[in-house]
Design goal:
alpha/beta; six-stranded mixed beta sheet; five-stranded antiparallel beta sheet
Length: 262
């Protein structure tokens, strides 16, 4: 049984609870010379509680733009972004840095691991930069790596790890400060299908067993079956929300493929 998760377009919300994440009239316009490109065009999204949410859509629909705004990596042209009850769109650069480091986790397609550091040192790095106690960091990083099946790989450098192992190290690093929400931008884009499936299963398990909100941008139709809900984007807006539990995997794969293909 999947953990019930709500993610939808529009303004309806749980009356007596603060949504985990909410956007209001979110717009992002890029200007190039005389041309104005509306990457997001008034998006309203609410994720009411922890769970595994997929973001899909054709190229140019605004998927990565949305994730970068939610993660505080870019600023909206207009609109609000409220994460766990706190508005982030008006934060200073210093506040955004603290938000990214301490309150959320971010995982990218490229693992962004430092080649000169071991797996455990890569996981510890955000805490070192934040001035945390090294003994606590080493214990915490070791526990995370062990929980993700990497207890025998902690002292290995990235070039001695497989792609799937490197992504698990990156996920452990993103979880260092126990964030309530994790953003993943095409986390399996450079992995083979079998490894991708294991990463999706791991993310779903983290969401359901640890009460974590995970928002994943993906172009992989097979990823949809592992999510609780999938938001389909088109022309900078949410065009459809699919409740995964209502559909069998074959229908989901076909419907997601149609959406991604435009």
């Amino acid at each position: 049984m999947r953990n019930p998760t709500a993610a939808h377009a529009g303004s309806a919300q749980v009356a007596d609870a603060v949504p985990l994440l909410r956007t209001v009239d979110l717009c992002k316009v890029y200007v190039s010379g005389q041309e104005r490109v509306h990457a997001l065009a008034g998006m309203n999204l609410t994720i009411e509680r922890p769970g595994f949410i997929g973001i899909m859509g054709p190229s140019g629909s605004g998927k990565s733009t949305l994730l970068h705004l939610l993660a505080g990596l870019d600023r909206p042209t207009r609109g609000e972004i409220i994460v766990d009850g706190q508005s982030i769109d008006s934060m200073s650069e210093r506040e955004l840095t603290a938000y990214r480091r301490r309150r959320i986790g971010i995982v990218f397609q490229q693992f962004n691991l430092l080649g000169t550091m071991t797996a455990i040192e890569n996981v510890m790095l955000p805490g070192v930069l934040d001035g945390r106690d090294e003994a606590w960091l080493r214990r915490r990083a070791g526990t995370l790596l062990e929980s993700l099946g990497l207890s025998a790989r902690m002292t290995h450098r990235p070039d001695a790890l497989s792609g799937g192992e490197q992504q698990r190290v990156a996920i452990a690093r993103a979880l260092l400060f126990e964030p309530r929400i994790l953003f993943a931008d095409e986390p399996t884009g450079s992995l083979d299908s079998a490894t991708s499936r294991r990463i999706w299963e791991m993310l779903a398990s983290l969401a359901h067993e640890h009460g974590l909100g995970i928002v994943m941008v993906t172009h992989e139709p097979a990823a949809a079956a592992h999510c609780d809900r999938v938001c389909i984007l088109g022309d900078g807006r949410i065009t459809e929300v699919i409740d995964v539990g209502d559909h069998d995997p074959a229908w989901l794969a076909n419907r997601s493929q149609q959406s991604v293909g435009g």
